[in-house]
Write the structure tokens for this entry.
Amino acid sequence: MRVLLVEDNILLGEGLFDTLQDEGETVDWMKDGQQALSALSVEGFDLAILDLGLPKVDGLEVLRQLRSGNGSLSKNQHIPVLILTARDEIQDRVKGLDFGADDYLVKPFDISELMARMRALTRRSKGRTSDTISVGTLEIRPSERKVSLDGSPISLSRREYALLVALAEKPDQVFTKQQLGQTLYGWGEEVESNALEVHIHNLRKKLQGRFIRTLRGIGYSLTLAEEAT
């Protein structure tokens, strides 16, 4: 999942950035509202974590512009937004929800609650009611970051897991290499030219050659028909 983190507190931002990456998410961290709007105008995200007290452009204005969907922001107009607020910012929390935020979390907070709220928002945005993503005999449980095939657990790297979830959330949809690369890698990360192909190869091997379909010159999909090519 590609996450936009907007937080100007360096200590908190660093902690969230590292933790989210450890949880398998791809994270772009912006430290002011203007940076956030710039990121939202050029990149597609699955979810935004938005602090309200931001320099240059405050969080409520970022949220207002995002939900307006004007111009280049339209690609992210409907992404889930989780706002972070201080305990005494009740009116700002109300305004945030009225402006289109999907949930809020009061500082200080427990990271496990943040992750649970992120998973809930993602489930709703993808139209799922269950934590488990099932494609045939393949099962993914995001709350535990566990994957099983035919009832047996599969060990995946962080990139392989993120790749599998992206494909499995929309089975039979074809993803281009660029789309999958944007899911796996944030800004500033060095990426070798064949990195995606290596992850696909390793993931297909661990899935016993099943599920992942290659459309040469186009991209990849995770097919409901388990035998893939």
Remarks:
- The chain has a mean pLDDT of 91.
- The CA atoms of residues 100 and 162 lie 27 Å apart.
- The longest strand covers residues 219-227.
- DSSP finds eight helices and twelve strands in the chain.
